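User: My collaborator sent over this chain with a note saying "see what the structure looks like." That's all I know about it. Can you take a look?
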Amino acid sequence: MNHAPPDQAFADHFSAAACAYASARPEYPSALFDWIASIAPARDRAWEAGCGSGQASRDLARRFA
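Assistant: Without extra context I'll predict from the sequence alone. Here is the result:
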């Protein structure tokens, strides 16, 4: 039984499957992130709504400071 507070239990929901997901999930094409950066009004920050394993976050971080 999980005795973590409800918000922590939910935060860890993805943890058990994260490695399997990351190993099976194809990479996004670099051109996608180049395009996003090219149309962004500024590059001082970026927000990824569904960050899951952080795969896209890493590519966004390379283009936004």
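A starting point for your reply to your collaborator: The two ends are 41 Å apart (CA to CA).
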